[in-house]
Request: fold
Amino acid sequence: MNIAVTVLQNLFSPVCLIFMFLGSLMGIIFGALPGLSGTIGVTLLLPMTFGMSPELGIALLISIWIGGVSGGFISATLLGIPGTSSCIATCFDAYPLSKKGQTTKALAVGITASFIGTFFSCIIAMFLSPVISKIAVKLGPWEYFSLCLCAIVLVVSLAKDNIWKGMAAASIGFVLQCVGAAPIDAVERFTFGDYNLYGGFDSSAVMLGAFAVFLVVSNYVNRDNDYVLEEKGCIKGFGLTLKEFKDNIVNMIRSFAIGLWIGFLPGMGAGLSNLVAYGQAKASSKHPEEFGKGTIEGVFATETSNNASVGGAMIPMASLGIPGDATTAVLLGGLTIHGLEPGPLLFQNKPVFVYVMFGAAILAAVMVLVMQLFGMRLFPKILKIPYHYLYSVVLALCFVGAFSSTNTIFNVGIMLFFGAVAFLMSIAGLPSTPFILAFILGGMIEKNLRRGFSYSTKGFITFLTRPVSLLFLIIAVLSLVIPVIKDLKKMKVQKEE
Reply:
């Protein structure tokens, strides 16, 4: 009881509430701006917390993180550009909804799903952190390899019209990810003697080029600048009906479980859960043909899962001292500077700090919900900006984001290069999602594959004898085989007719 009272006193002090409010607002802004993210916001504000108490500092940083993850869907909805990598799949349906004149509905779904994912995942993390973290620590490189491979195959199997094009796009992503030093032995690959390529392609530049630069260029080439803006009378109310919410409860529960599970696996992050949940939602839907054209099922799935991964990522961070994603890695660095040792002993030595951390995440989720509800009607106004201005702003943000990521002009060139690659892929009809996912997870797949071989004398057999690894591999194989069988049956029926 004394711990609970102390935690509440820390969280609801005027200073803490003000800092958390400003942090949540800053996180939403950083998440909504392409090229920036909550991770960048946390990194920028980390030095400012050194003079604060550990409890106040962690509350500020976590509020930025929560706002950043939730705010990413704003630009994904209004511009078709993911504000963060955790909102890639949100673009697939939220943006078409916005173009059809249902911007408020898309925003309402995103706000609702974001809150549900964050709020309940943080509650679960707070009560079950010690128990669930024991499951993650038992997984080895074999399970991580199979999980990443399964995620890519799931997305490839959902490639529009042609699974072979999806595989080709994923192969390009794998090849480009191989540039730089190899994992484990650090052998140089495809650097051509340029030291700028030794660390590989910067992921921020890749995302900005493949999404933002590509979108601006393709829209300019296709003159796709005409958007259906909602009339003033259409934005009254919340935009989401109770029936629509009830119809997606199962979808949200499934996506929540995916986000929580992938979130607490160290190194996985919200970007992976976002894509996997979208694939599962489409596979389970009664109307899969509507996905990609503007259906709220897709938005519910993606925003619930990527926000649920927040609570999942906090589990290994608090219980084991292992970062669940990039943001928790920064947070762990902050704890060390404050003289705290992350891990199991943190629960015994600093119980107030641990529960302030979880309580701050829950309180920040409520703050972000209120801010987005009041600001929802302001978000669509960005669509009224003349596009010769908007394109300039988007490109300027892209250049600033790419440069600030590594502080080199070379990174700007990488961004433009990937913009050109994405444009050429669109001409060839290759989907971008398998390409991006293969690029992001390629390094992890290679690293865990090589570790799996080095840790065992049985070679690839170990990947098949470990139950969890085998389960992921079976799902991957079925995801490839079933669509091919369906296509063959469809061709047979058409031939008979």
Notes: The first helix runs from residue 2 to 11. The first strand starts at residue 180 and ends at 181.
